[in-house]
Amino acid sequence: MHEPAQQEASLSHTLVAIQSQIGLPAERFPHLIETHAPWLPVPLCPSLQAWMIDDPIPLWEALEAETGREEEPPMFAFAWPAAQALALLLATGAIDVRHKRVLDLGCGSGVAAAAAARAGAAEVILVDLAPMALLAASLLLDRHQITTPRRYWCGDAFDDGRIFADCDVVFAADLFYSRSHAERGPRCIRQLLGDGKEVYLTNAERPYFDACGLQPLWEGQVAVPRALEGVCQRHIVMWGLAPA
What we know:
CATH class: Alpha Beta
Strand order of the largest sheet: 5-4-3-6-7-9-8
Order of helices and strands: HHEEHHEHEHEEHEEHE
Low-confidence stretches: 1-10
CATH architecture: 3-Layer(aba) Sandwich
């Protein structure tokens, strides 16, 4: 088993530091998300629960009213289809993370990280561009009473890959959802594979996806809110290295 890496300013951020970026008193963010986002079983992995908004507008407006500035849509308040698939595959042991240090790249709601912790990961490292996503993920893990060691990193891991040094497994759900990610993300993933990292990608029909030489290992369907996705169902594929 690996010992959790000692926290360093360059390789992790405290929740206090992340909280300071969002411009809200510490107690207000949990109140807003709990008021405007229902806490429900995750459809593909009902042993876990998550905030599952079907319309982002009420929470989005509430956050902007509190911070007094424009905010990005609160996409952390929904367990996206590809993250649900990761949670399912971790919960069933299809992805084996026992005693491994796991990094959730673009963690969003945190549901995949929660599944990894429950599946026996030695440590979970939550990485996201959005401070609010990291706070939401922390709340989700706390609600599930998860005590697995965890670290947080708020920033663009494509530009600064040092955070990957201390992990064994990297997984990412719907990582390539923009042209910018499509241009930079595959280079990062291929570097991780070249460094011997175990990598799993799940994708729910996002237009910029690149499998990075990985092989499809699982696929399935899940119902989604039309208000969020524009469709009622998404097809999901999980990509990784096939067992030897």
